[in-house]
Amino acid sequence: MKLVSMLALSVGLALVPVAQAQVSCSQVTALIEAAMEDFDSITGEEVDGDVYAASFELDAANDCQITFDLSSTYACMWVYDSLEAASADYGLQSRALGDCLSDDWDRDTFAPDTEEAGFKQLDGLSYFQEDEDGGAITWVAYLEEHIDGDTHDWHVWVGVDYF
Length: 163
Hints:
Elements: H1 2-15, H2 25-36, E1 43-48, E2 51-54, E3 63-68, E4 72-80, H3 83-100, E5 106-109, E6 115-116, E7 119-130, E8 136-148, E9 151-162
Antiparallel strand pairs: 1-2, 2-3, 3-4, 4-9, 5-7, 6-7, 7-8, 8-9
């Protein structure tokens, strides 16, 4: 009887959807340290122009990259087939990020109507502060809809920018 119960429990657990991993406080700390040195320690091969692969990836992210322009930016993206799944993950990611950052980080929300070709931002927030050297560190989390030809999906982004 115990074997049957264990098998039933195992089958039941196997059918439960796996939740996306959210950003952890140790990852936030590591990325803040990496930002202070312009992400040199985690910058991989050049992918395109000023876009580089990242050797450090947030759990279960579809893609993580580093860009250099006026500032240095590390960002990871998760892709979803439904708005519901993307919204749920955005909620987890943004709450986890907020829980990891102390109260001395300023917080702001994005306007949900920001659009560029094929992308519509649905929700977003940022946390920012200046470091002791006068540099600005900004964390962002946002949810966007992506429509391009036959592609219709939703993206959750989490990233940190150092300027």
